[in-house]
Specification:
This protein is mainly alpha-helical. It has a domain at 36-134: Orthogonal Bundle (Cytochrome Bc1 Complex, Chain D, domain 2), CATH 1.10.760.10. It has helices at residues 2-20, 45-63, 72-77, 95-104, 119-134. The longest helix is centred in the N-terminal third of the chain and has 19 residues, at 2-20. It is globular, with a radius of gyration of 29 Å.
Length: 163
C-alpha cells in the first residue's frame, strides 16, 4: 500500500515541478508603434535565399509559387488571397502588419512558429514577398503601330532629291 502511494506522490511532485520550471521563453512580436512599421532587416543575398526557401516550404502551397494567390488549395479552402505579383496589393500595408499576420496567423492562415522561423527570417520573408511584384515582367503598354503608306510597285525606293 505504501509503494503505490509513494509512486503517486512522486509523479504528482514531478508534474508540479515540470510545470512550474521556467522553460525557454518564445520570441514575441514587438508591439507595433509608429516607428516600428519599417523593416529593420536589410534584404541581404543569404537572407533572401533563406526567405525564398521558407516561402517555398510554408507559403507557396496557398499563395502560389509566384505569389498570385491562385492555387487549388486556396480555392478548396474558400479563401481569396491577394495577388502579390501586383504592387498595389501590398501598398499601404506596413511591414509590421505583415509580420504580425505571418507570426500570429490570420483567418485560416496558420502562424509561422518561432521554432520554424526566427523574427529576422520572417522580416526577410517580407522583403521576399514584396519582391514578388518586382520579379514579374512589366506590362508593356500597347502602342498602335503607325500606319504605313502603301508603296506603288513601280515607284522608286528613294524619292528624288529636290534642288
Amino acid at each position: 500500500m505504501l509503494k503505490p502511494l509513494l509512486f503517486f506522490s512522486a509523479v504528482v511532485l514531478l508534474g508540479i515541478t515540470a510545470s512550474s520550471a521556467p522553460g525557454p521563453e518564445p520570441q514575441k512580436a514587438a508591439a507595433a508603434s509608429a516607428s516600428d512599421h519599417k523593416n529593420p532587416v536589410k534584404p541581404a543575398e543569404k537572407a533572401q535565399s533563406r526567405a525564398k526557401e521558407l516561402y517555398g516550404q510554408d507559403c507557396a502551397v496557398c499563395h502560389g509559387e509566384t505569389g498570385d494567390g491562385k492555387t487549388d488549395l486556396a480555392k478548396d479552402m474558400g479563401v481569396t488571397l491577394g495577388d502579390w505579383t501586383d504592387p498595389k496589393t501590398l501598398d499601404g500595408k506596413p511591414d509590421q502588419e505583415l509580420f504580425d499576420a505571418i507570426r500570429n496567423g490570420k483567418g485560416k492562415m496558420p502562424p509561422e512558429g518561432v521554432g520554424r522561423a526566427k523574427d529576422d527570417e520572417v522580416r526577410s520573408l517580407i522583403h521576399y514577398i514584396r519582391g514578388l511584384a518586382k520579379s514579374q515582367p512589366a506590362a508593356v503598354p500597347e502602342t498602335p503601330a503607325a500606319p504605313v503608306a502603301p508603296v506603288a510597285p513601280d515607284a522608286p525606293a528613294v524619292p528624288p532629291a529636290s534642288n
